[in-house]
């Protein structure tokens, strides 16, 4: 949700949203948002079963795609080009057309199958980015941690929103 909020303020960025059935349930269970309020943050919203949507074709030009969060089921579908819904079809389009695909994989701990699937997606040109918080920017709140993850995902597309203080190196000692 934070990613969509931030992108609403970005110039020349149009957002297209696909919410899987389970993502809709997770929004209700894990956040203070309801599904309609999340959908209202996007410029275009598609049903996950709509295989005829604009984003199901490589001829519909986009800069790339972020799947946030990415479940192990979606990771597996993307890694194996199992395009059984619009979300995984759109992800496959990004890979086949050599566009940016970023997966914020949410499962932990990882087993060997997860790691193999991550490697397969990476070999195909995707970026697997588990939302692991960094501590160098001294986060004080959960929002600080979320903002760091959102900005790092946006970094993959060259979009700077200033959501955290970047690493500037260790202070010089004895200089």
Automatic annotation (TrEMBL):
Residues 2-156 form the Flavoprotein domain. One of its GO terms (molecular function) is prenyltransferase activity. InterPro entries: Flavin_trans-like, Flavoprotein, UbiX-like. Keywords: Flavoprotein, FMN, Prenyltransferase, Transferase. It comes from the Bacteria. Gene3D superfamilies: Flavin prenyltransferase-like (3.40.50.1950). This is UbiX family flavin prenyltransferase.
């Amino acid at each position: 949700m934070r990613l969509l909020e931030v992108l609403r303020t970005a110039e020349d960025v149009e957002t297209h949203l696909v919410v899987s059935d389970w993502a809709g349930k997770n929004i209700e269970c894990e956040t203070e948002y309801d599904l309609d309020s999340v959908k209202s943050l996007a410029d275009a919203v598609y049903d996950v079963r709509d295989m005829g949507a604009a984003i199901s074709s490589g001829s519909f030009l986009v800069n790339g795609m972020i799947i946030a969060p990415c479940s192990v089921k979606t990771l597996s579908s993307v890694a194996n080009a199992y395009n059984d819904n619009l979300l995984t079809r759109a992800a496959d389009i990004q890979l086949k057309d050599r566009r940016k695909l970023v997966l914020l994989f949410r499962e932990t701990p990882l087993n060997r199958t997860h790691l193999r699937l991550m490697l397969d997606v990476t070999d195909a040109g995707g970026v697997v980015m588990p939302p692991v918080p960094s501590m160098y920017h001294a986060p004080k709140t959960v929002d600080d941690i979320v903002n760091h993850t959102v900005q790092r995902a946006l970094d993959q597309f060259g979009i700077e929103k200033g959501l955290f203080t970047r690493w500037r190196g260790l202070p010089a000692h004895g200089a």
